[in-house]
Amino acid sequence: MSTDDTDLDAWDFPLPDAHIARYPADRRDASRLLVARRSGGVEHRVFADLPGLLEPGDALVVNDTRVMAARLHGHRKTGGRIEILVLQPGSGPVPCMIRNARRLSPGEVVEVGGEPATIVERLPDGLFAVDFGDAAARMEAHGELPLPPYLGRGADDSDRERYQTIFAGPLGAAAAPTAGLHFTPEVLEALAARGIGVHPVTLHVGIGTFRPLRPEDVERGALHPEPWTVPEATATALAEVRARGGRIVAVGTTSTRTLEAATPEGARSPRAGSGTTTLFLRPGSALRTVDALVTNFHLPRSSLLMLVATLLGRERLLETYGLAIREGYRFYSYGDAMLVL
């Protein structure tokens, strides 16, 4: 990693506001797809073209986490309003971010959805442990999907479908694995017909999505911990893909981090199991499993941008982003996609 690559300013780029996608495309697979080949060259396609851009015997790995309706509104006995972002489901105290938390104290009872919730303790990183009784039930009854703040709007009814992938399973994410939002049953059928497998892993997206990357994070070389799981069937399938010479294509930065966290040193495919990762992938990081990447267009100065640069390098990636802006691509969670081959 060069000196420039460690400077957050080197990862900045100007993005006109008009390029931020505040709503998804009419059809998931109608999003545009910029194809960047590491050998050189760029193609402009649509996401429905993805199966034909891959080879029979390749494998796609998707993150099947399900986004929680994690944003809850409440108020204190003083009348002050608070906004709570739940970071994991569960019974008993769960970690949360709280907006307007000034002078909030352990033991205080707040009202959320007409029911009490207890502030149990302060946690590191400015978080709080909050006891809702059953956090998942409270979110199901009163929560909103936590759309990213750069969308500049609250969630509406359509987001309940469109801010989840079609393969969403285990509940636990505070934000969507957005590269997976482009997939449709038709794309999955076309992949299967071409002999390309689609295999799930799980990484529950956490607080890192809502916190800007800091210089100390870059210096430390670690991100906020997030839990991951690689099923036995996925590990077995990817080992077989590797043995026959196929490529492993990660769908999204979260799938990439899961695969790399689960791959032992010296191996070329992940082991089955579960764990927690703080893995920070950036130029100079060696990718053991991932050969190619499907991803969205990311925020300036972000760890996600740095991860994509492990495949393209910083200068080539920023040049490609500049081209995408000139060509009218839509950025961020509901934006267009990019395939790095």
Offer a concise description of the structure.
The protein folds into 2 domains: 4-67 and 157-340, QueA-like (3-Layer(aba) Sandwich), CATH 3.40.1780; 71-143, Thrombin, subunit H.
Query: Can you give the mean pLDDT?
Result: 95
Distance between the termini: 21 Å
Order of helices and strands: EEHEEEEEEEEHHEHEHEHEHEEHHE
Number of strands: 17
Which percent range fits the helix content? 10-25%
Alpha-carbon Rg, integer:
20 Å
Low-confidence stretches: none
- Main sheet overview: 9 strands, mixed
Tell me the β content: 25-35%
Widest sheet: strand order? 2-1-17-16-14-3-12-13-15
Total domain units: 2
Compile the SSE list and pairings.
Elements: E1 32-36, E2 42-46, H1 50-53, E3 59-63, E4 66-67, E5 71-75, E6 81-86, E7 91-99, E8 109-112, E9 115-122, E10 128-134, H2 135-142, H3 159-162, E11 171-173, H4 185-193, E12 197-203, H5 215-220, E13 222-230, H6 232-243, E14 248-251, H7 253-261, E15 273-279, E16 292-296, H8 303-312, H9 314-326, E17 337-340
Parallel strand pairs: 1-17, 3-12, 3-14, 4-11, 14-16
Antiparallel strand pairs: 1-2, 5-6, 5-8, 6-7, 7-10, 8-9, 9-10, 12-13, 13-15, 16-17
Description:
With 341 residues, this protein is of the alpha/beta class. It has two domains: 4-67 and 157-340, QueA-like; 71-143, QueA-like (Thrombin, subunit H). It has helices spanning 50-53, 135-142, 159-162, 185-193, 215-220, 232-243, 253-261, 303-312, 314-326, and strands spanning 32-36, 42-46, 59-63, 66-67, 71-75, 81-86, 91-99, 109-112, 115-122, 128-134, 171-173, 197-203, 222-230, 248-251, 273-279, 292-296, 337-340. The strands form three sheets. A nine-stranded mixed β-sheet has the order 2-1-17-16-14-3-12-13-15. Helix 8 packs across helix 9. The protein is globular and about 60 Å long. It starts with 31 loop residues before the first strand and ends with a strand.
